[in-house]
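Newbie here. six chains, one complex. Structure please?
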Amino acid sequence: MTGQEKVEARKIKILEAAAKVFAGKGFQDATISEIANAAGTSEATIYDYFATKEGLLFSIPLGPVQQLRETAEFHLRLIKGAANKIRAFLYLQLLFYRNNRDFASVLMLILKQNRRFLDTQAHKMIREFLKIFDHMIKEGMDSGEFRSDIDPYLLRSAGLGAIEHVTTNWLMLGQPDDDEFLGMIDPMIDTLIMGIQNIEETGICPLELSKIKKNKTGGDKK
Amino acid sequence: MTGQEKVEARKIKILEAAAKVFAGKGFQDATISEIANAAGTSEATIYDYFATKEGLLFSIPLGPVQQLRETAEFHLRLIKGAANKIRAFLYLQLLFYRNNRDFASVLMLILKQNRRFLDTQAHKMIREFLKIFDHMIKEGMDSGEFRSDIDPYLLRSAGLGAIEHVTTNWLMLGQPDDDEFLGMIDPMIDTLIMGIQNIEETGICPLELSKIKKNKTGGDKK
Amino acid sequence: MTGQEKVEARKIKILEAAAKVFAGKGFQDATISEIANAAGTSEATIYDYFATKEGLLFSIPLGPVQQLRETAEFHLRLIKGAANKIRAFLYLQLLFYRNNRDFASVLMLILKQNRRFLDTQAHKMIREFLKIFDHMIKEGMDSGEFRSDIDPYLLRSAGLGAIEHVTTNWLMLGQPDDDEFLGMIDPMIDTLIMGIQNIEETGICPLELSKIKKNKTGGDKK
Amino acid sequence: MTGQEKVEARKIKILEAAAKVFAGKGFQDATISEIANAAGTSEATIYDYFATKEGLLFSIPLGPVQQLRETAEFHLRLIKGAANKIRAFLYLQLLFYRNNRDFASVLMLILKQNRRFLDTQAHKMIREFLKIFDHMIKEGMDSGEFRSDIDPYLLRSAGLGAIEHVTTNWLMLGQPDDDEFLGMIDPMIDTLIMGIQNIEETGICPLELSKIKKNKTGGDKK
DNA sequence: AATGAATGAGGCTTCATTCAT
DNA sequence: TATGAATGAAGCCTCATTCAT
């Protein structure tokens, strides 16, 4: 390891320790001392890498968001159709949260409510990342895959809101458990997308409702 | 004003001041001294009414949630149809947030991320309040108004998540502005509900789920 | 009960409550609120009777010391011989402590270390009370019952010191238990008095002081 | 001075400052700020060394008691005879109090009345130290130097009680003054010891205990 | 005479941050 | 580059005490 690499490695160690401690106790209740302990360094060393406690907090997403973005871009390139892309996009996000619980906690429970975070490089990266979502919506509307009367902002809100709500619940309550957490995303996204798809375009309609209904609801009715 | 009333009035004044200050600066950055000032009392008096700073925070929702619940129950009694009820329920919530911005801030940006809040009387009230939502979903499914294959938890997540997301954005960014904020709720709810309505019932569109699923999975494989 | 008596009764109730609370938690950790509770009154009422918390503390001994003094004077009048009087005096003191544990705690553990207590009416009463002890010592020396070479101050110190030490131990440790506590006083006083009695006078033992001294000094030399 | 030594030196400085301030104003009326001032440090530094104000208080005796113990053990090794040892033991204690007035104040006026102090390392050291006294008493009784009918606990109480009483008086009243304070100890100890020495053993006086007892009881009856 | 209610004053304690080594 | 040690700044909370009723 070169000196440069060693420095980078330690920085990452600090960030991971910080994510863990912040996730566990919240920003205010976490102390630099605790983070230093968890990172195996001294408090002073942390200040060699980050100017302030809040600066450290705001640096946590830089790596993960970059990573998530690259993953998303890699996968999305292979997928056709706006609906499918959106499904994948949301799915990858949830998957990422599940695999990086500390980061998810920091992002959902701490950063999302910090006004100063809005002026941050990390927040800019997140905005950039979410533009992908907007593009996909636009793509779906342009291509006719989605109904033309939907409001992109609303779809975005519903999609991201649902993700956030589910993730926050998972983080706060531990329910549903890790496996179920991912399993639920598919039908949820279905429901969302169903509401916006252009039925003519998909060519699925006219549907024989009675059949579907019988199929699926039959049991319920009896 | 009797002595009892005066006490109650002062308590409410403190709670309102606390909501305002907490909303403005967050829990940790708010000081009791500031709240006392805003309430026109001394710090010590606040401790005559609330045992701790956090206890004060946790008491803020008690009044508003009660009020919101009564409003919702009053209106919902007059509405027929699960979809319409849900629309009204979500709308009333947003309306209430818009009219009680401080309370909304405290709830969305502070309390939602506090684990200890979960064990609170106020949180219990919120859970009770949201049961109304669950009942409405069940009602829609039982009556056949909603498709029977939706997962109630998911619908709940999407609905509340969207509300929270929109509200949080409004609080954090000031966008969209107050008027637009309410205006957007109608189409958003439409979109959501459209995804779950039973098409036979509404006579609009038969969706073929199997195809969508196939399509989706195919995409993932590529 | 006349009004005057009722007032007096309440005052006593407050003093007893105060003794109890002070004894249990010490002066600083006791609160007026607690004392008011224990006395069945309000805090404000306590201030109708006593000007300050410390004034209340300083008033606690007034009754008990008066009572102890009267008891002592009554009994001592019946006893002949300085040694016997001293024994009785010390015994009555211990008996009183045992029967008034809260008062003993307040006196031994709180008041004895308070410099301001020295300027107090209650302290003056205690000094007066202890003059009885000095008189008895003088009586014993004058009559020849005690050796003439003892230092009255020293005897006083040893006698009172032993009492205080035993009482303090009892209060702090609960050892020895209540019954044993009294039982031990007799032999202790014997030991003390034995050291000061004039053997010629009592006809028991021709104590050759010079030899004892020699002996003692001899020991040092070896 | 190495870093380690500097730290130790500062710790001692804080302890000395604390002893001084606590001695002067009592525990509750002393402030950390004052102690910090007296020690030439900041308040926060004190908390780097001691967890709480009370923890600081409880740490004060650690050094002095250790020192006193070593002194006592050194001197006692050179002395023969239980009476002489006891005299030396008590004398060294008083001498130590006189030379460390702040420590004496803290011990006699503050710590002795604190129940929590009983569970302290420092209190354990004191108990260990006083075991020396118990051993000496036992030694005197085993060797026949002391009468066999004395109760060791009582002798201990009388000895320590007298010391405490005299010391407390000196601390509270400033009387007798420093020089006299030490001068009085010799005759006081003589008096004490005279009461317990075995006269047969010393060959001085056949003390007829039965008679004394009779005498005493007779007095009570009259 | 009794008290419910209000408050001024102040201390302990915590940490983020700095700096000399 | 790393850190042990020091500290300034600040806030929560407690109560003795007062006063209007």
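Moderator note: Residues 201-222 of chain D have pLDDT under 50 and may be disordered. Chain D has two domains: 3-59, 62-206. Thread marked as resolved.
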